[in-house]
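For consistency, the fold was encoded as tokens, which produced the following:
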Amino acid sequence: MKYPIRVLLSLLTLCTIGLGTNNVSAESNQCREIRAVRRLAIRENLDRDNLATLEDKYCGNNNLPSSSIESPLNSSEDCFDLTAMAKLASMTEDAKSFVGMIEGLKQVTCKRPRQGQRSTLYWQNGKTAKWASNWYYPNGQRVKGWSGWYYPNGETATSGSDWNYPNGNRATLFSQWYTPEGRGTSVDSLLTQGCSIVSTRECDRILAAINRSDTDRSEDKNSDRKRRNNLWRNLAIVKLSWQTYQQTNQSK
């Protein structure tokens, strides 16, 4: 049995034990167990947000991380870049060993803006994280180029306004969307499939963020903010579609 599957079974066992309890406290045994399993699952690159929802159920709102699709439109440039980098990294197998490093630097940079002003930063493994205005993943892969963003495995995530999945297949071409298998589809279809694998709460958060982004994009005249809005909206859709694809393949 694969290790991530054993982790999920542990989560299921904990949920079964805790059903029916109203003991929502950061000091409860269930809370401590959930957080221990959550830390383990994150190291295995399992979905952080569904785990955060589970933590919220047993621990209340204490230390609950922000949603993966909450748009950091008003953050510093470094905070925005690291937030997007973390989401791109979470979609690839290559980042399984170092996605936690990105999340850690993101938290410090977003909470301590002066940290983000440094021209050179390094990862714990000694590799360069940032040099001048250029960001790099902990495996040395450049995060952004002149034409767009990259995944840690070297595949192009964005090229101009178009998106690709981590497997190299296109996600968008002009206004047309595609599944990770390469079939033409629509945004609503991708969201419908994605919402069948995430919690109702997480689906509501994703849809609210995308709807808010669609409204902001049509009203916002600030070009930089519109750029961020476009990127964050499409990243949310691509990530949800990729989650659906991965789960479908694992269940076959």
